Amino acid sequence: MLPPLGRGVRVRGLRRGVYLLPSLFTMANMFCGYACIVHAMRGDFHTAAGFIGVAIVLDMLDGRIARMTGTTSAFGLEFDSLADVVSFGVAPAVLAFAWGLQPLGRLGWAAGFLFVASAAVRLARFNIQAGTVDKRFFVGMPSPPAAGVPAATVFAYPAGLSGPWEALAVLAIVIVPAVLMVSTVRFRSFKNFDLHSRRSYPVLLLLALGLVVLVAQPEAALLVLAYFYLASGVVGFVWGRLQRRRPDEGEAAAAPGPSTL
What we know:
There is one protein chain. By secondary structure, the chain is mainly alpha-helical. It has a single domain (16-249), classed as Four Helix Bundle (Hemerythrin (Met), subunit A), CATH 1.20.120.1760. It is 77% helix and 2% strand. It has 8 helices and 2 strands; from the N terminus they run H-H-H-H-E-H-H-E-H-H. Strands 1-2 form a two-stranded antiparallel sheet. The longest helix is centred in the first third of the chain and has 38 residues, at 5-42. The model has no long low-confidence stretch (mean pLDDT 83).
């Protein structure tokens, strides 16, 4: 027997809606990037930086929703990357320029473009490496946390910077994440975090504590979180180099010297 026409239409409509759901989150992510640019042009830096924070949350959700509903697709991957270029490349660069890089003139907007280009390269590299790298780590700093560094700084200090010496400090806030995005420094991804293991309980308690601090002092909490994640990759990279050097030094010391006979 054929199913009733109305029931079939409802099933197809529901299925189409499920497929559109991740793209709606991606579209909202892109809108947040656009809104950040508009508010930065108006000088409302606190609101502009907040939109980048919302975009980061939406970017975390769209991929997870696509995997949970089984609606992952090549279109979704490309659409997500384009939205990320806007929200985590162009938007933080414009925000940083309007907030503190303008006194540097051409050097300021050149630094902003470096951030945009690094974000685009980082996303393109992530797309071609998907499924071929260790899922526990990202190769290079992901673009959302990289955008979070200038965004969290502006969110904590929205008054803006005007002097040339202060603008030089903003260069580091923009250039360091940009360089880390295109580097080979590994950053923890947390994608394989298992909520069913006993080891996850202390982490969940820390997350609960972090939420309390975030609600009580959002500016300070986001600032610490952004710079802590940036520092974690750098510290891990340096520690790994030191660990590699120690065995080499031990083997060199154990090797017999030249004969004196």
